[in-house]
UniProtKB/TrEMBL annotation, chain A:
Protein family according to the UniProt entry: Belongs to the binding-protein-dependent transport system permease family.
UniProt entry keywords in alphabetical sequence: Cell membrane, Membrane, Transmembrane, Transmembrane helix, Transport
Protein name: ABC transporter permease
Domain ABC transmembrane type-1: 85-299
TM region(s), chain numbering: 25-48, 89-110, 122-143, 163-183, 226-252, 272-300
Membrane topology: Multi-pass membrane protein
InterPro entries according to UniProt: MetI-like (IPR000515), MetI-like_sf (IPR035906), UgpAE/MalFG_permease (IPR050809)
Cellular compartments annotated: Cell membrane
Organism of origin: Micromonospora qiuiae
Short name of any one Pfam family annotated for the protein: BPD_transp_1
Domain of life, source organism: Bacteria
UniProtKB/TrEMBL annotation, chain B:
Domain of life of the native organism: Bacteria
Protein name: Maltose ABC transporter permease
UniProt-listed PANTHER family: INNER MEMBRANE ABC TRANSPORTER PERMEASE PROTEIN YCJP (PTHR32243:SF18), MALTOSE TRANSPORT SYSTEM PERMEASE-RELATED (PTHR32243)
Membrane topology, from the record: Multi-pass membrane protein
Species of provenance: Micromonospora qiuiae
Subcellular localization, as worded in the UniProt entry: Cell membrane
Family: Belongs to the binding-protein-dependent transport system permease family.
Keywords: Cell membrane, Membrane, Transmembrane, Transmembrane helix, Transport
Domain ABC transmembrane type-1, residue spans: 90-278
Main location: membrane
TM regions (residue ranges): 9-28, 94-115, 127-147, 159-181, 202-224, 261-282
InterPro entries associated with the record: BP-dep_ABC_trans_perm (IPR050901), MetI-like (IPR000515), MetI-like_sf (IPR035906)
């Protein structure tokens, strides 16, 4: 998985004369400049601007005045925000667990040989290809209390006595939101872990089998350590996606019933575009962005450590 | 022998559960789109339409609700306004997607190549900052875009979406393409340079053709992201692209689920077909973009 080009290039770089090296550097800067300007203008600037808004009071007329941390104080004393925060944590934990475990299961399954394996491998990409918002829409009607096929199937198998409408119940709505999100994310997880599984050299499991290791031992001491870097990446991506989820929940419940599925992203949307409370909305954005940054930082840290560990073992 | 039979049983049970998990919600959507509103509500449930109908598809495209306007199915009558918006939205979604892909491949391609081949002062720091910018959640920085586009009079235009989508696809595309260029051997370029080819000529005539698989993978991932994007289109435009238009149909009472299902199909089928057709490129891109 490490790139070989970097190592082969070094002698060539050293041989270059300094004049040519300078011209090379100019050419590189020239090629990279448009992208750098765009990313500065389209990511760094809006992020900075949002941070500034979060420390200000902005009137409808567009007047801005500094208010220090007032917006954050208001945020953390707002019961709806605290409720949103806890809902988001609940949602992302569920989303992370279901998508990661199902994805791991799918990857292990599709790594086995069986009739229909090619079909299953093709189908694995299908939920991932569905836009998030459409996933929400499909699941909304799939679990619907009147026309939903899930009710119909459970009813016909005698598992339920009457059709249920989970989206009108607070717990039910959150569970469906987790399942719908995980329906797509488990595919993504499965695709990545399967790609990781396919890099395991064939001799390893065979050697372990000769040594008398059983299925669990092979999984625990061979497959899992091999997959560690991929799983670390997947866990962090799934956590971030859980925290930032908007589309699926919006299509499913728009945050309802009541406030049952009003996660941070929905709270943020409402503050900015329904109540036009720029200060409070931007403070929420800073909290959300802060969570993403911390998770991203942990991600890089863990990734480096797990790389060091696997490299140390090899 | 016994363990291998057990293995077979477990694998096929797993396969069956997998098929149900992936296909059941989708089958329900396809099935609904070929049914009348009254048939979808029947108990016991019809697992196959009694009289398959294309009326849902016709209704969302032409607003012609004639098949449902008489008898008990009268409720399906479609809003001509929403219908009038769906067809142009498909065209605009394609336009935005193609424009974002084109700008990404040129801009990110050049940058990715630079980071792979031509170090300049600060290039490592710049590259790391680019990677870090992937962590910034789109949803958290939407307001400055909104304010700036309102100021520039760009709200509710395709250009607003093309510009803002670049913010989140560029870092991904640069990462993917840099990784890909790293895996392309340099010998051909070195040889061409000895023959007197300029750096730019090397990039255009030699590297670009070799890097085609990487460019395709990056282009496909970027297109799928642009096609599927919902939040920015919802906030910055009045539903210019397909996802917010279709999601918005849910709020209109006159649309029954069967018609919504047909509209959903138009949003879901194109990316699914693309993903199936280019599976290998996409999986390679996803793996490179997330793991390396």
């Amino acid at each position: 998985m490490t790139s070989t080009a970097e190592t082969t290039s070094r002698p060539a770089t050293r041989r270059r004369s300094s004049v040519r090296a300078q011209a090379d550097a100019r050419f590189g800067l020239l090629l990279a400049t448009p992208a750098l300007i765009l990313v500065l203008g389209l990511v760094a600037w809006p992020a900075l601007r949002t941070a500034v808004y979060s420390l200000q009071r902005v009137t409808l007329a567009g007047e801005e005045s500094w208010t220090g941390l007032d917006n954050f104080r208001a945020l953390f004393t707002d019961e709806r925000f605290i409720h949103s925060l806890t809902t988001t944590v609940l949602y992302s934990v569920g989303f992370l667990l279901v998508s990661t475990l199902l994805g791991l299961g799918f990857a292990l399954l599709l790594n086995e040989k069986f009739h229909g394996q090619w079909l299953a491998r093709s189908l694995l990409i299908v939920p991932w290809a569905c836009p998030w918002v459409m996933v929400g829409m499909i699941w909304k009607w799939f679990v619907d209390g009147e026309v939903g096929a899930l009710n119909a199937a459970l009813y016909q198998f005698g598992l339920i006595d009457s059709y249920a409408a989970p989206l009108s119940d607070s717990t039910g709505a959150l569970v469906v939101a987790v399942l719908a999100g995980a329906w797509r994310q488990a595919s993504f997880t499965g695709l990545l872990i399967l790609a990781g599984l396919q890099t395991i050299p064939k001799e390893l499991p065979q050697a372990a089998m000769v040594d008398g290791a059983n299925v669990w031992q092979r999984f625990r001491h061979l497959t899992l350590p091999w997959l560690r870097p991929v799983i670390v990446v997947v866990v962090i991506i799934n956590t971030i996606f859980g925290f930032m989820q908007f589309d699926t929940i919006w299509a499913l419940t728009q945050g309802g019933p009541g406030e049952a599925t009003s996660v941070l992203s929905i709270y943020l949307y409402e503050q900015l575009f329904v109540y036009t409370n720029i200060g409070l909305g931007s403070a929420t954005a800073v909290v959300l962005g802060g969570i993403a940054l911390v998770l991203g930082f942990v991600f890089v840290k863990l990734l480096y450590r797990s790389n060091a560990i696997t490299e140390g073992v090899e | 022998m016994r363990t291998s039979r057990l293995r077979t049983v477990i694998v096929y049970i797993g396969f069956a559960l997998f098929l149900i998990w992936v296909l059941f919600p989708l089958y329900f959507t396809v099935l609904s789109s070929f049914m009348t509103p009254s048939e979808i509500g029947v108990k016991p449930f019809h697992w196959w339409p009694e009289n398959p109908t294309l009326a849902n598809y016709i209704a969302i495209f032409t607003g012609d609700s004639a098949p449902f306007s008489t008898g008990q199915d009268g409720g399906i009558v479609s809003s001509t306004d929403a219908v009038a918006r769906l067809v142009p939205a498909i065209g605009r979604s394609l336009l935005v997607g193609v424009a974002v892909v084109a700008s990404n491949l040129v801009i990110a391609g050049a940058a990715g190549y630079a980071f792979s081949r031509y170090e300049f002062r600060g290039s490592t720091v710049a590259y790391l900052l680019l990677l870090a910018s992937r962590v910034v959640p789109a949803i958290a920085v939407v307001l400055p875009f909104f304010v700036a586009f309102r100021h520039l009079g760009l709200l509710n235009t395709s250009l607003a979406l093309i510009i803002s989508y670049n913010a989140f696809t560029l870092p991904l595309a640069i990462w993917l393409l840099k990784t890909y260029f790293d895996s392309v051997p340099r010998e051909l370029e070195e040889a061409a340079k000895v023959d007197g080819a300029s750096r730019l000529r090397c990039l255009l005539m030699i590297v670009t053709p070799i890097a085609r698989p990487g460019l395709i993978a990056a282009g496909l991932l970027v297109f799928l992201e642009a096609w599927s994007e919902f939040f920015y289109s919802l906030v910055l435009t009045n539903g210019l692209t397909v996802p917010p238009v279709v999601a918005g149909l849910q709020n209109l009472q006159q649309f029954s689920w069967t018609t919504l299902a047909a509209a959903t199909m138009f949003t879901v089928v194109p990316p699914v077909l693309i993903a199936l057709a280019f599976q290998r490129y996409i999986v390679a891109g996803l793996a490179a973009g997330s793991v390396k």
